Request: fold
Amino acid sequence: MKTKQTRWLNKLHQFVWKISSKLGPFAPLIAMLLLGLLVLSAARLGLVLWKLERVNNTGKLTQVLLQGIRVDFIQLCILSLVPLLLAPVLATRQLFKAWQKFTYVWVVLAIVLLVFLEAATPGFINEYDIRPNRIFVEYLKYPNEVFSMMWRGFKIDIFAGVGSAVVAFWLAHRYMKPWLGAQPAWSNKKLWTTWPLIFVLAALGMRSSLGHRPANPAMFAITADSMVNSLVLNSGYSVVYATYNLLKETKSSDIYGKMLREEIFKLTGAKEADIPTLTTLHPSHKRDKPLNLVIILQESMGATFVESLGGTPVTPNLEKLKEQGIWFEQLYATGTRSVRGIEAVTAGFAPTPADSTVKLSKSQKNFFTLAALLKQRGYITEFIYGGESHFDNMRSFFTGNGVDHIIEQKDYKNPIFTSSWGVSDEDLLNKTHEQILAHHKSGKPFFTIAFSSSNHAPFEFPDGRVTLYEQPKNTDNNAVKYVDYTIGEFFKKAQQSEYWKDTIFLIVADHDIRVRGVSLVPIKHFHIPALILGADIKPERFTGVASQIDLPVTLLSLMGIEAQHPMTGRDLSSIPPDSPGRAMMQYNANFGWMEQTANGNQVVVLRADKAPAHAIYDAKTKELKEATPPANSKLLEQRALANVLLPDLLYNEQRYRLP
Reply:
């Protein structure tokens, strides 16, 4: 007796092929359209039910589902493009068998790919609070690291993805099998006269608009919640659009609007010159011999893990150390990825919607970094990482821009612990201490960047170091507590070493973990800890709003370096600690600009192909509330636009460099 599922499949076959067979050689494309709409709509419905509370909070449930069908239609029209271009030749009676085999393979693989991406979506949303996007595409470049991480911490996601793909292959094969036995029903004349109409309809389906611009993700950004907006899309469309943007990203800031060059310079303080932002730093601390510098860049250790900043109490060592140096209470990351933090902290470069300059082609050489400046002054320059330094193109960026020595996973002998992402932070900071001792002994000044990795999914670290904050062991809170332990152990040794008296240290996060939220820019999750200590640094609390790009300028000033540089950040050591400031935050395609004023933290959010949105951010409650545009809204919008267009200009014209 046939099972209920088999009867259902047979009825589906009969229904689909009854409709599609009327279109002769185009039948498989119609079949792909019908099955694709069914699969993608079912996947979206499942995601909506999973995130129903957030979807309901937007009041756009019906629109999410209906606009989603529109996006699915666009995606399936895109998938039909290649077969349609080949149809006038391959679909003729003479080559019909080849056409059958080609379209059979094409449709089966297309359905399998769509199903696989949808199956991968829940895990990606759990990690990044959005559908697979450019991060998904970029991670494909690093299969070893990513597969190792997935296998150790996301086995369920792997089996779900592979299992779904296998089932999809079997179903798609059964679904398409009738097509392989079909006979050519159309003459060549009918094919050639019908093809232009079919092609035009598919082209209109891809555009999904008769307006000046074709449909794009901005058109489907129907709520203030980026995650919900991504549910309107399907993951195939999201990945295709991300890939398209990666190919044209050097002009990415144009999505917010255009501005005359002169106006950009006027609003940002730049000037028409070979290096428009070139300035001379007069340090706040005059020194006969400038200090050494060590930057400890902490993976994903946002303010959400620091009790005194309103987070979880898992950083007791950092809380103690903050009493010994300059502690920043309102410092904000520029983005949500490690490379964005590297770009801001080591190069002082402001964010854009494009990828970080760590990965872009024009910044791989002759691009300003602290290492490039300090190398000119005789400093030993070094980057220390626990994993493989080619990840995220870090090795290329650093070696091309002033870093002489790189230490990576292969350079550690007998590490204490090795995880998916490389050796532990314990090994990293032990190696950092060892290297600094050697540099200090040589008598040469040094600049060392140590980049941690233990606080990264799947959160692996050695046993017996800390009392776990929660169960099970492999969670972000426990990983941060271990990372904090390694910081405490490192500074115990550092403070007893000869290099302490002539070295300053910066501890700073690259970004917070799993940045997400229902607002256009979840500012709460851009808040990060930062502490400068060492040498003769006096304890201080900097309470004004500040950005990651302010840190490198401040460090040079505290080191006693007088130099010309192109950075646009502020020297926070030369102004009162309660000085009002500004911060800039890139969140997917949204750019947030926040200014501290007497009326609160005014925020303007620039959006792709949409009018800017205005809000007020309360740093105490960590709430971002939409607000009516203030009296100075136009100036605020123009200032934000100028500050996102300027780095784009500097990068494209290769004007962010030393003289």
